[in-house]
């Protein structure tokens, strides 16, 4: 690119970074591949080098102004793969994947991603790619993986770190901040409108909101138990059609049923599904161009008929298209929000009850399954927060995230769950997921 691009962070991306620094933790997306008969390390090194030319190869450079807009700068990438020295057995793969989630990752100081390989006894290998969610969402990661496999080099025009002198940065950022300040009145008005529309939700959440206690900050970090699996796409689609739904609607119904079996229904027996909606466009350099919808699902109905849930999802998407911009209007306040406010607001962004995260990446390019240039035997994806503790999860009302992606004629899924007062182990989560799949008559292969 000969013309410098605007590398100013979008409000949503700056909000993600502000939350990361205020809370001391942030979401990470992990992609996992298992090769049963060995992996091509040279192919993976090529993949690693090619990632340096994708959207995830960037860092955040802070503005020198206290309430300035931060900017994207380029990143050269890690020097090499992180290959484990000792071998592990096949049934230890997921323990290793959990351990990889603790490897340092940082969207400001780097690295914004890391790539690890675990050789397995018998000649196989597991591969893990972790990406900071502040650097890119699941779709950005998917596109970056496909580009790296194909050897496609993107030049987004991000300048190198420190390209601006402090004087230049101050002069430029004062102009940008002043321009941003003009949006504050509309942002306040939009925030007040959202607050009025969600008055009951916010008041209920506010009563439970509290800053992190010393017990929370000193508690041991944990990995939320998670299981992985897949259903043949043909089986999934046939069941969806039989119930009057589609592949995506059946996934939402499955998420609702898992939530029901984990006791996350509200007083009326409904499950609150929180569904992210990607607004990424061609050539989009935003890290998180996301909106979301909230849908109430009847968990006792979805196993027999998906028509009601299908209609509810469609209506929510129609309403989002009509009011999405107004919901995003308060984001202009993000650069002016102090850390202490972010900590207090963490609970306020939650809906009443116990929402179920329901994120479906959809159909993925076949290249996503080929980090070394050949097809892996097993694929998995996970989202989660590095640094979360039991007291934090208690305060947030537990955690349930159901994720899915379609690849190689299979619907791959993962379920992460932590519930206060329950046995929080992979085996326990696996039992719940198997029961939910049985509710739909879906045969699945599950790993935990």
For this entry, give a set of tags.
alpha+beta; Chloramphenicol Acetyltransferase; 448 residues; 21% strand; Diacylglycerol O-acyltransferase; seven-stranded mixed beta sheet
Compile the SSE list and pairings.
Layout (H helix, E strand, L loop, with lengths): L10 H13 L2 E10 L5 H11 L6 E4 L9 E4 L7 E2 L9 H8 L12 E7 L5 E8 L5 H13 L15 H16 L2 H14 L1 H10 L5 H5 L7 E7 H10 L4 H15 L9 E8 L11 E8 L9 H22 L10 H7 L10 E8 L14 E9 L3 H6 L3 E9 L2 E9 L7 H15 L4 E3 L1
Parallel strand pairs: 4-5, 8-10, 10-12
Antiparallel strand pairs: 1-6, 1-11, 2-3, 5-6, 7-13, 7-14, 8-9, 12-13
In summary, what is this structure?
Helices cover 37% and strands 21% of the residues.
Helix content: 25-40%
Mean pLDDT: 88
Structural class: alpha+beta
Overall geometry comes to: globular
CATH topology name of the largest domain: Chloramphenicol Acetyltransferase
Strand tally, please?
Answer: 14
Share of residues in strands? 15-25%
Put simply, the count of helices is 14
Spatial separation of the terminal alpha carbons: 45 Å
Largest sheet: 7 strands, mixed
Q: Supply the number of structural domains.
A: 2
Structural Rg: 22 Å
């Amino acid at each position: 690119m000969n013309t410098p691009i605007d590398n100013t962070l979008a409000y949503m991306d700056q909000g993600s970074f502000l939350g990361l620094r205020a809370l001391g933790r942030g979401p990470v997306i992990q992609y996992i591949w298992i090769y049963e008969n060995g992996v091509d390390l040279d192919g993976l090194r090529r993949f690693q080098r090619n990632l340096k030319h994708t959207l995830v190869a960037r860092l955040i450079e802070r503005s020198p102004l206290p309430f300035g807009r931060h900017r994207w700068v380029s990143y050269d990438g890690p020097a090499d793969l992180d290959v484990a020295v000792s071998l592990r057995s096949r049934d230890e793969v997921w323990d290793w994947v959990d351990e990889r989630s603790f490897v340092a990752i940082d969207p400001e100081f780097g690295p914004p991603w890391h790539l690890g390989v675990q050789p397995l006894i018998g000649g196989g290998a597991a591969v893990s790619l972790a990406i900071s969610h502040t650097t890119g969402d699941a779709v950005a990661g998917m596109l970056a993986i496909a580009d790296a496999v194909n050897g496609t080099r993107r030049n987004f025009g991000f300048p190198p770190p420190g390209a601006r002198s402090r004087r230049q940065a101050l002069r430029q950022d004062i102009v940008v901040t002043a321009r941003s300040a003009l949006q504050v009145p509309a942002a306040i008005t939009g925030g007040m409108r959202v607050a009025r529309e969600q008055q009951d939700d916010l008041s209920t959440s506010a009563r439970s909101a509290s800053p992190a206690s010393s017990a929370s900050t000193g508690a041991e970090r944990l990995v939320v138990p998670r299981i992985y699996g897949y259903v043949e796409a043909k089986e999934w689609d046939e069941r969806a059609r039989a119930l009057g739904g589609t592949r995506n609607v059946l996934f939402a119904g499955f998420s609702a049923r898992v939530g029901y079996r984990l006791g996350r229904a509200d007083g009326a027996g409904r499950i609150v599904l929180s569904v992210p909606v990607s607004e990424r466009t061609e050539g989009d350099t935003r890290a998180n161009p996301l909106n979301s919808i909230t849908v109430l699902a009847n968990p006792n109905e979805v196993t027999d008929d998906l028509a009601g849930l299908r209609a509810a999802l469609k209506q929510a998407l129609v309403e989002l298209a009509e009011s999405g911009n107004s919901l995003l209007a308060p984001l202009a306040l993000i650069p002016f929000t102090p850390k202490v406010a972010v900590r207090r607001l963490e609970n306020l962004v939650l809906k009443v009850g116990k929402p179920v995260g329901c994120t479906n990446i959809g159909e993925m390019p076949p290249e996503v399954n080929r980090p070394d240039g050949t097809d892996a035997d097993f694929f998995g994806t996970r989202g989660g927060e590095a640094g979360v503790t039991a007291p934090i999860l208690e305060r947030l009302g537990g955690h349930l995230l159901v994720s899915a992606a379609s690849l190689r004629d299979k619907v791959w899924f993962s379920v992460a769950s932590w519930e206060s007062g329950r046995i929080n182990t992979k085996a326990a989560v696996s039992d719940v997921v198997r029961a939910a799949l049985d509710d739909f008559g879906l045969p699945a292969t599950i790993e935990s």
